[in-house]
Amino acid sequence: MSNPVVVEVLRGDRVESAHRGAGAVVDAGGRTAFAFGDVDRPIYPRSAVKALQALPLIESGAADRLGLTEAEIALACASHAGEDAHVAAASAMLAKAGRDVGALECGAHWPSSETAARALARRGGTPSALHNNCSGKHAGFICLACAEGVDPAGYVSPDHSTQRAVTAALADMTGAALRAETRAIDGCSIPAYAIPLRALAHGFARFATGQGLPPQRARAAARIRAAVAANPAMVAGEGRFDTEVMTLLGARVFTKTGAEGVWCAALPELGLGLAVKADDGAKRAAQTVIAALLRRFGGFSDVLGPFAAPPLLNWNGIAVGALRPSGALA
Amino acid sequence: MSNPVVVEVLRGDRVESAHRGAGAVVDAGGRTAFAFGDVDRPIYPRSAVKALQALPLIESGAADRLGLTEAEIALACASHAGEDAHVAAASAMLAKAGRDVGALECGAHWPSSETAARALARRGGTPSALHNNCSGKHAGFICLACAEGVDPAGYVSPDHSTQRAVTAALADMTGAALRAETRAIDGCSIPAYAIPLRALAHGFARFATGQGLPPQRARAAARIRAAVAANPAMVAGEGRFDTEVMTLLGARVFTKTGAEGVWCAALPELGLGLAVKADDGAKRAAQTVIAALLRRFGGFSDVLGPFAAPPLLNWNGIAVGALRPSGALA
Fold first, then answer.
1. Does the structure show a pLDDT above 90 at B199?
2. Which residue among B5, B17, B185 sits closest to A281, beta carbon to beta carbon?
């Protein structure tokens, strides 16, 4: 990987650290509007594709048969912070499928929200799989299985019918071949398939517009976008980029982070999809890059300016440095 | 920065992320035994030089005049996790100087130990400056000032006599000119001076051996090394690399992390100093590199093997990948 430096971390006037990366902005017809770095090497999109993985839940009719709310559909696309509302919604989804926390196969971890984690500790609690940032996605998988009359047990396996439907949707949307050779295991134990950034951006342009999709899928994509836009607090959490930006901009932007420095986004009005990855896996780098790209291509300078060049404050609140996009993104 | 890739992060068989970096292994005479990347560009060593910054506390006689224990001297060199023992020792140091938490100018943050943070939350507490990972270093500065009859107020300023003594020791040990032009502000508000990795490694070789140092400083360095070796739990915390490695290897290794992907170390028996920085600031990268270097140059394969190629486990405890040194470090 010899991708360009895309974000510099300044302390005082000096570059203390620097992040390399790649990214693509693609329209629904597959035309690349902008790219930097190697956007054809397959990378693991991780949680950045949860909205695409949620398509079968909607287009199968499972969400409607179980009566999922729009907030719950948003949670199925979330990497949530483990706040009370997230835990309650994941629990409610499982109840609608006739299951409970015991059906989740994602593993448990403390809420990623430090506030939520401390509140849980303060009341003497310990985390369950409901607090796992992926519990909404997993609850969605379980809802899909149950609504289809399938035993959800083992739904994280690539061979389970639910996971096969999820993988097929991801392959169709991105045009990427998702084979065992490009498969690894994600943090929550579901399959992680490597997909080029250019294909991911194309997939999100199609997700944003419905262009080139069968009508049922296009409707499902629009419904997911609307559900997320109406419930941005469900998708991440208080103070998180995805929640904050979609709260400010509503349905004009869809944005979703993934582990190891991945970010995918869409600009529905402009028919563009975006996908970036920091070579080193740094979230701060990917967030700065996606903010810079959304600002440039979406024209949201006022809203996204602060996210594209965030100051670094020390423990006394003194501004000691800043992040800044560099190179082709400067 | 176009330093080589030094650590690869694998998911399955595929490189998911990669870290670039630079590092140097230097002897006390200033001979470079091994180097990769640009080791002459000044970088901020951050907390990796706390042991050098603690030299004035010892060589001035301040530590003895105030009756600091060896554990407290170790804490003065620490980036501690905010465990109860760390907080108690920092508090005790301040009491010996006739001060309390109010004298600390480092700012407050929750313990970096999640266990300690949750325990604090569980008992309804909130963090103070004593929980700041730098509180031991700051308490040491305050002890130095008070023992010398100087008002500690403003000790974080580059112009305060205490900070001038600390800066002079750092400059003398590394041979680097520490000027206002290479100065920024650290996370705890003290000055952060940029110093080349080669000079840092040389400084730690001199710290490790006393070679070329005035007798009083050589004795102070030996005392700090002994204090840290006898109290490795003070320097970082449970499960942290520095604590674990020095618990296993005692005085044969000195190792200290710094923010933004810096690590410094010393092998006293071999007379070598080491300094590394990950370009992107990633701690996981710097830790893997320093472990690989200590394994290679120190011959501690059994102890350091697991740290130099740590597995990545997911939330279900499944091994989904690993970190591995690459390029010149493979």
1. yes
2. B17
